[in-house]
Amino acid sequence: MHPAIRTLAALAALAALQAPVARAQPGDVPPTDSAALLGWLQAGGYRKWARESSPHKSLGPHPVQVVAYLNPPLDKSLAAGAAAHPKGAAAVKELLDAAGKLTGWAVSVKTSSDSDGGKGWYWYEILGTTASGNVVARANGVPLCFGCHAPGRDYVLIGHPLK
After folding, report:
1. Is the CB of residue 69 less than 8 Å from the CB of residue 49?
2. Which residues contact 152 (CB under 8 A, 6 or more apart)?
């Protein structure tokens, strides 16, 4: 192999090693079946993700206090300033009452590499923490959700770095 080609190949390999990995690992992506998702949320595994330090008023229409959690792919994508997030990027917002008690969740999961005008995202919101809660959204491309999230970076309104 010509020395110049070998050098270019070595530089490309080094760059690939240094690039942030934004792929979801097992357990980092919430299920997109509403019954499985509710159980997953109740188990609280998302609480290991990067999170905001304290509750605050939602930037969207959620009429309660929220705390956002970002899975590693979304956290890395936002930190890198990416215009589009990778498939598997996800956020969970805990919905809290004035006393700080958990009253529900809002979840977004990018299910396709192309956001497709918000249709490439799975949206889920439940007011309540049990199966008897009021499910407001539970599908890809929910207009109520992607309509409000459209001004965000690839449908994500959460500021970064997290505060």
Report:
1. yes
2. 158
Query: Which pTM does this prediction carry?
Result: 0.83
Boundaries of every domain in the chain: 3-149
Beta-bridge partners for 126: 105, 135
User: pLDDT tens per residue, the chain (163 residues)?
Assistant: 444 444 434 433 333 333 344 455 556 899 999 999 999 999 999 999 999 999 999 877 777 899 999 999 999 999 999 999 999 999 999 999 999 999 999 999 999 999 999 999 999 999 999 999 999 999 999 999 999 999 999 999 999 999 9
Distance set, CA 141 to CA 10, 29, 40, 136, 152 (Å): 42, 18, 21, 13, 15
Collapsed DSSP state (helix, strand, coil) of residue 113: coil
Residue 75 identity (one-letter amino acid): D
Cα–Cα distance measured from residue 24 to residue 7, given in angstroms and rounded to the nearest whole number: 31
Cα separation values, 19 from 13, 23, 66, Å? 10, 12, 32
Residues sharing a CB contact under 8 Å with residue 58, sequence separation 6 or more, in sequence order = 64, 65, 66, 93
Say whether the peptide bond before residue 161 is cis (omega within 30 degrees of 0).
yes
